[in-house]
Prior knowledge:
The chain has helices at 3-8, 26-37, 67-71, 107-115, 138-143, 182-192, 218-227, 229-233, 253-260, and strands at residues 14-20, 42-44, 53-60, 75-83, 85-87, 96-99, 119-123, 132-133, 136-137, 153-166, 169-176, 197-207, 216-217, 248-251, 265-266, 274-280, 284-291, 296-302. By secondary structure, the chain is an alpha+beta fold. The strands form four sheets. Strands 1, 2, 3, 4, 7, 10, 11, 12 and 13 form a nine-stranded mixed β-sheet that branches. Strands 14-16-17-18-15 form a five-stranded mixed β-sheet. Strands 5-6 form a two-stranded antiparallel ribbon. The longest helix has 12 residues, at 26-37.
Amino acid sequence: MTRRSHSRSEPIDGVLLLNKPAGLTSNQALQKVKRLLNARKAGHTGSLDPAATGMLPLCFGEATKVCAFLLDADKTYRVTARLGIATDTGDADGSEIATAEVPDLSKTEWTAILNGFLGESMQVPPMYSALKKDGKRLYELARKGETVEREPRAIRIDELELLEIAGNRLVFRVHCSKGTYVRTLVEDIASKAGTVAHTARLHRETVAGFEATEMMDLTGLEEAARTNPVRLRERLLPPDSALQGMPAVSLDTNAVERFNAGQAVLTDSAGTGGLVRVYAGESEFVGIGELSGDGKLAPKRVFHMGEKNP
Length: 310
């Protein structure tokens, strides 16, 4: 973007739910939409592999302050596994490294296997991941043929629903915590069934409380940007839409001024404490605060919506 067009960019604050197409990295998708909106500041939450599709929340302007909270959110995926073939990357982009017979199991037997993964467990991240070991990305080491020990990480599976089993094709929906590697889950499920597998297709259906019906396709965004850019910006969701799992606290005018200035304020919301959404009155979102048990509210993130660019 040139300096001149950059200076004409308007304050754009909000969240856009992109239905990411296959073939783009998450950052490539972000940059495309950022240009369509002529936004100055943008970030995405929770990368999807280039081959994966589905919900990628894109945050613009002040909404970039909620990125970290969306990274921690639960997610739902529709997964298609190819049974009988394992790949080095765990997905269809990798090279075949092993084959095995696919057992002739009933839907009831497959359901029992899936149910065995429900709840909390420890998962070893795959070598083909962006995690770092001694400053190097694991996938960089994997591409050199190196394998290093990885520490297991705590994950949680809340739902595993069998959708289809036909021959070497297994389709299921999984609702899981942050940090869950679906490719590893597919391999572990296949191992329990006495075979091998890789992830053939991965589609993210939901992130946090966002619904799939709120997503927009990239082609639709491009058309909207060409024909009615103002209407496109109206599709942005407010930043606090990403925080609906947090309780809300309302402040009066004086308390809002102190909160915006970075000062802790007293509220009548004494209780267990924790992170809360903070509003001026009933509806004007002003930030995220941390509430202590005695009702003291400390600012964590202050939002200045719609401010003009310098």
